Queue: 2 jobs
Job 1
Amino acid sequence: MTRKTQRQPDGGFSLIDMIVTMTLIAIAAGMAIPYMRDMTDAMRLAQGAREVERELQTARLKAVTSNRVLRVRFNCPAAGQYRTVELIGTPAVPAPADDANNRCSPGVYPYPAPDADLMTLPNHDGPVRYLHPSLSFGSVTTLEFRPGGTVHANTGAAGAWPQLSTSGTAITVTKGSSTRSITVNGIGKIKLQ
């Protein structure tokens, strides 16, 4: 009795199988790239807004715990930058050196303060913070956090700044046509929206 050998089929994929598979992968990747770019932009915008919100929360907490008036200045010293600074003088009569151009300069008012003497001000200035280069501030105003936890806003008028209303003001962070807002009201409630 003779035994017949059966021929095994050749294994692997044909060239056509490979071309079809690569084409489907390329189409799927082409559709996913714009979605991933949009998702990355949204994540970057959300992260920037969270960082600004954290800076506002920290400034309020530091004002209350240190019994000092702190201001958060935006686009300071340049667009897309922000800094928490301790008020020099009083809210009604700030010292002449307490202007945005001077206080935003880390060269003039370095972080950390050169001394810890409570008699010399400022002692509670923060570092200059930076938004991602693709982000910018929309509507912003300098905010002042007082030791009682209240929040006041710069209206451009002389004298003490008025307390924000209960509806508050919005600080917006933008990326293209997308925005995220941080709402701050007069009693110190800070909410990321």
Job 2
Amino acid sequence: MKEPGELLFLLSSVDRINILSAIGEKRLKQSQLASKFSMTTQETSRQLARLSDAKLVEKDPQGQYGLTGLGNLAMHLFPSFGFLVRRSEYLLSHDLSFLPPEFIERVGELSEGRYMGGLGSTLDHINRVLRESREHIWLMADQVLVSDAIHAK
């Protein structure tokens, strides 16, 4: 691969993404992958060959496939694309380009989060989390929390 478009084209196949995800969790043989995804042996072989040619997967001496370092890194980028797809409606009407690049690079970490609309519901959620975790926060904090100082008055 010499261009980012080549990698993106390679990863545009649901079958290849499924294979990468599966062998990212556990090394598997071609027959196990074919069975897992109800694919023919020939189709599985073809997909694995494309992934191998791109150096995303490698076959060990026992015939099991696993991710290479490059494949592992590519899979770590998927949460960012998943976030973009799931939040596309929101992102069409909200410009996040003002955020620092280091935040944009970590946008995939928001995939595990929950969207909350409105400031009031967000503040209520924060207060609930603080109330429920008060014991642990006191163990970690070396100063009084702002909410505690307000409630003490």
